[in-house]
Amino acid sequence: MLLTRTQRDSLFLIATACLLALGICAPFSGHDLQRGTQIGLGLCAVVYGLSVSSPEWSVNRPAAVGLALIMVLGLLSSAFAHQPLWALTEMALFICSGAIALAVISLRRNGGESIDSALMLIVLMLCVIKSVQYMYAVILAFGSGQRLLNLDLLLSGFSNKRFYGQFQTFTLPLLALPLLIARGTRPARAAVLALLCVWWLIAISGGTRGTWLGMAAAAAVLMWLGPWGRRWVAWQLAGVCGGLLLYGCLFMLVAHHSGNEIISAAGDRLTTSLSGRGPIWWQGWQMIAERPWLGFGPMHFADVANPIAAHPHQAILQWASEWGVPSALCVAILAGWGGWATVGLIRERALVATRADLLRLCLFAALVGALTQSMVDGVIVMPNSQVWLALVVGWLMALHVPRSPEPVALPLAAGVWRMTSVLAVGLLLYVVIRDVPHLEQARQSYLDGRGDHLQPRFWAQGVIALPKPRVDGF
Fold first, then answer.
1. What is residue 459's three-state secondary structure?
2. 20 to 30 Å CA-CA from 316: which of 145, 184, 288, 360?
3. Which of 143-147, 365-369, 393-397, 470-474 comes out lowest in average pLDDT?
């Protein structure tokens, strides 16, 4: 029996919620599991996209040309790369992200505000679960009787606390939405404010400076976008003050009274150091200078071995060094075009303040924060962050009110896209089947032979540089 459109929408939402929860909230979750759930969600999005046929799949011609140009340049870059299969795998990841974004666009435009409520419920659910896990870890830490209390050990679900911070950069702006909506009851708003304060407590204690920078940039932009933007900033400041108060009570007063010594305190992160980014940024510049037109190939920063990281922790340097400068310019133009259109719409509707307008404001703040953080961190690399970037972009695009009539559907482009998305997910599934049985062995071999820490990229051990052949006697 064929499923109705509503049933397919519901199944996709349930799959999204389950996969996000598995990748973020499971005690055993980490980079490799999150990569697996990302590919699983991409598969669901592609299947969902094949099952629906509607005008939501169409894009205007300039955007279609820009995206096609990026794909063509990516294919050329992959063809000349040292390891073409890994380059195509990186391309497949971004196509997979595009499939997720398009699925969200179609889902929301068909389901309307009920989809907004469902997606916000997923956001709140994830934040509540992670907050409960964190507070439970705090209670266990104080009750353990140990003198040293390492705040980094209170964070769970991510292989690095910076990846946790990236997730918070996407979700902190969204938690302000129930506080901006006047229809919420007083107890519900108080509960959301408490959650926002705890979420900021985790952001403060985690010490991810990229998250602080991203939220500061989002606040600076929203202050300029009208009265509701300033109200958003006011609620975030209330959350920051609440988080700081909780931090002081737990990790200063209670810790001092209990005789605990805090390790990795938030104050230790208040520095201007680059945390090792200088050398990898310089490597990115050198790669751009050497191959400016097509780059070294997608994912191929990881093919130039260095002792620090498999990506440059800077989105522009990464794209330009791997995909080439022309491709990076195309991406920047499309992103700037879309961002400016959203700014114009927010300012135009600054005094209307419908639920969709307030949601657009929060989503735009999340996007500004994430893009700012991507200038100093691997937001476009980590699997969970790639998923949330796709979700936020798709959600924001679905809310967009075009100034001109809807573009005419492009059947040929839609057909090419569907075929491309199927091939991309197929390649990703092949890589998973090929690599997963040997991941632990590969990690241990890398640690034993060349490094003292893992460098995440596609997998948690993300260096794809082939080992140099050994010559007997040397």
1. coil
2. 360
3. 470-474
Domain-embedded: residue 418:
yes
User: How buried is 114 (Cβ within 10 angstroms: 0-12 exposed, 13-18 middle, 19+ buried)?
Assistant: exposed
pLDDT digits (tens, 9 = 90+) for 133-185: 999 999 999 988 888 999 999 999 998 999 999 999 999 999 999 999 977 67
Asked if residue 200 is part of any domain, the answer here is yes
Q: At 313, is the secondary structure helix, strand, or coil? A: coil
Measured N-to-C along each axis, helices 209-222 and 227-248 cross at an angle, to the nearest 10 degrees, of: 150
Q: Which of 10, 12, 5 is nearest to 52 (CA)?
A: 5
User: Whole-model pTM above 0.90?
Assistant: yes
Model pLDDT for residues 229-259, shown as the tens digit of each residue: 999 999 999 999 999 999 999 999 999 888 8
Give CA–CA dist 417/175, Å, rounded.
34
Please tell me the distance from the alpha carbon of residue 471 to that of residue 319, in angstroms, as a whole number: 35
Number of domains in the chain: 1
Asked if residue 38 lies in contact with residue 386, where contact means CB atoms within 8 angstroms, the answer is yes
Task: Kindly report the number of other CB atoms within 10 A of residue 385's CB atom.
Answer: 25
Q: Judge whether 206 lies within some domain.
A: yes
Distance CA 411, CA 236 (A): 44
Tokens standing for 267? 């104050």
Burial of 76 (0-12, 13-18, 19+ CB in 10 A): middle
Quote the CA–CA distance of 388 and 48 in Å, as a whole number: 18
- What is the sign, positive or negative, of the torsion defined by CA atoms of 154, 156, 162, 168? negative
389 vs 100: CA distance, rounded Å: 10
- Which residues, at least 6 apart from 336, have a Cβ–Cβ distance to it below 8 Å? none
Q: What count of other Cβ atoms lies within 10 Å of the Cβ of residue 473?
A: 4
Q: What residue numbers bound the domain in which 416 lies? A: 5-269+276-401+409-449
- Which alpha helices (DSSP H) does 29-181 contain, by range? 31-51, 61-79, 84-111, 113-143, 161-175, 177-180
> How far apart, in Å, are the Cα atoms of 179 and each of 29, 129, 131, 248, 349?
31, 20, 18, 25, 19
Listed residue (427, 143, 434) closest to 260, CA to CA: 143
Question: Given pLDDT bands bounded at 50, 70 and 90, which one contains residue 407?
Answer: low
